[in-house]
């Protein structure tokens, strides 16, 4: 595992910076301090966004193949108009009756399997996962949470404590157990389900014999932080069954895969043919407006709602709701999922072609427009693979394309453009990607 | 203590409802379920807001003396214009350089004592308190948190576990200790500081002898959920010193008192002449846009930032920042604090006059535009006082004025209008309040 807290980041002094950016960074460090890490060796400075593009103060354009929050593209005029129109009318909280909240809740629930018929709104994906853990612990009576070995689920105290991705500096809960994905262990597809289920069953036994009990299996169905290990479809079904037998709840963290990222489905868990007990939403829900939700089955949601007094001041306010409503309308009306399928296949074929012709790619995995691309030359050490991935990310940044890294060793590229990515953007990305890979690969090839 | 999760709420069947509202509530219950409680016996239904007023679908106006989130008034056109203008330009995250984020962070820090020189943004007050607890626990090495007996600090798992206000159904952390406020125990002002300090010292001893250690004293400086117990100024100073001696951090939860609510100061802790280690912000910061922050001293903020990888997807995005920047500009430019002082004194005098002439008021406390008014006739039982407060809140609602209840017994009125409340609103409120109190008091007076 990489011990760097964030490999793709700015380190003072590593590369020379223009005076304008150096001055801004000095001011920034003085008030925001160490928590605020900038991406790239040479940080990017943006003042304008539009669709797939971000622009720096000199009006240089960067193709955004990284940001999954503005999934309808930067500064979507229709989304922004809906937000502004509602803000001018009323920003009501949920203690008052307001039809717009109910309308959207119904429309959102309609995109889920019928068993999932309740929603509670939040402001962030972290709040969604935090609330889902509260519900699961209350309903199950257990405390234990099972996650994958490099999972990241958010930033609240309870959620950070079940996010091994945060590294050794952030204490894990004594009640969390980690399980390995079949893909990262090289397990063949035919054995993947049995392998994963066996690990989850072992974790359950350990939690039970220590009196901790099982609250939940919490997973992101495309396992984005583990390196985008998505296949074979359905490999988590046995584990889901095991957790339910033990009285635990199944929580699908859809903050990354949800709202059509995978193209094939609105929700990532659908790929695996399961219906979770709780589903958590965030990032693209409002195309950038802070809004999230927990969608769940009737019984656990009602049990929690009747027992605990839960309120969230900003969550479900009508401005966020109107914004999210516009996002859902556009996703459906513009058939964004179909476009994601088409463009992601084009990107996949293009990346396969690059991999066949240029050295440096060890594997490519994708679910729709979320790609994990393993970097490294044959026989390169983990540290060399990580360095090469980082060089590639920075070469692309210098050529005006934004991506970053992922996986336990941080040697996989994380590529996830806004969902409005079209063929022309895919082709431009592929051309620049090929050029950058050729350059970086030659630098790592022994003369 | 009241055992009702939320006394001022709608209970199906208690009063007849118009068909339009009954139908909307049925739809709402079907998707949002039990977590979503409506205020008032007869819920209010709003479709439009402007300044101090909210309007129902029949265009009936309600004077808002309750909502402390839109502190500049509902649908403030300048705030909304700043939000819309920024949303049309760029919604950048904090991994990229963007001058607006730095500008606002500097302006915000300038409103604090010099020792508080760092800020980390969040999306909600709950996220702010959750993060502050993470920082305090990391820096102190302790786990114990000291709060007041009826404190509410938010809704995440870690924060709900130190919020006794949530009632018996929400488990408290084994690491939290509750201390009583001198005011609720009837302690005279001259002994208040010693009384409070002694309780905090006893809590510290208990936490230490159990090996839990002291992470923080966490308090809202106007003690809003305990019933607005604010006097005498400075009574918390000895407790603050005791916590620091024990290696704990002092966290001022400014979600309610902050941004000028008290009129005398921008921040509530200033009333007590102390400088906290961490300060948490939320509610009015964006006049409704989901934004919060932790402001803190250099050492703990840097220690956390360098140790843990903390990121919050939506927090610090330039749309929220531009919105909060507009709020701060208007607060300062329009001298809102001076207006709060003037109008709150007028309200206080008016309430004192009502109390002198109409039976039913047992006490009045305020810090600026946050009032706690104890309701009850001489010799009435706690349950009668609670019922009378609830009747009064509902009588005012029926007369087009919004307030609610607070305190351990829920027999105090919570009155906190937007900060743009003017003399004319205060006078209108006082007239309707007097009439409602007369009506309710006579119903509770033996014939």
Key traits:
7-stranded mixed sheet, 447 residues, Aspartate Aminotransferase, domain 2, 15 strands, 4-stranded mixed sheet, alpha/beta, 12 helices, homodimer, 15% strand, 2 domains
CA-based gyration radius of chain A:
22 Å
Number of strands of chain A: 15
Give the C-level CATH assignment of the largest domain in chain A.
Answer: Alpha Beta
| Total number of helices of chain A | 12
List the helices and strands and how they pair.
Two copies of one chain form a homodimer.
Chain A lengths: L18 H14 L15 E3 L2 E3 L5 E4 L12 H13 L9 H11 L6 E7 L2 H16 L3 E5 L8 H4 L15 E4 L9 H21 L4 E6 L17 H9 L3 E5 L24 E4 L10 E6 H10 L10 H16 L2 H22 L3 E7 L2 E6 L6 H17 L2 E2 L1 E3 L5 E4 L7 H22 L3
Helix pairs in contact in A: 2-9, 3-9, 4-8, 6-7, 10-12, 11-12
Architecture overview:
- The structure is a homodimer of 447-residue chains.
- By secondary structure, chain A is an alpha/beta fold.
- Chain A folds into 2 domains: 19-35 and 46-74 and 335-376 and 385-444, Alpha-Beta Complex (Aspartate Aminotransferase, domain 1), CATH 3.90.1150; 77-333, 3-Layer(aba) Sandwich (Aspartate Aminotransferase, domain 2).
- Helices cover 39% and strands 15% of the residues of chain A.
- Chain A has 12 helices and 15 strands.
- Chain A has helices at 19-32, 77-89, 99-109, 125-140, 157-160, 189-209, 237-245, 298-307, 318-333, 336-357, 382-398, 423-444; strands at 48-50, 53-55, 61-64, 116-122, 144-148, 176-179, 214-219, 249-253, 278-281, 292-297, 361-367, 370-375, 401-402, 404-406, 412-415.
- Chain A has a 7-stranded mixed sheet with strand order 4-10-9-8-7-5-6, sandwiched between helices.
- In chain A, α4 crosses α8 and α10 (336-357) packs parallel to α12.
- Chain A is globular, with a radius of gyration of 22 Å.
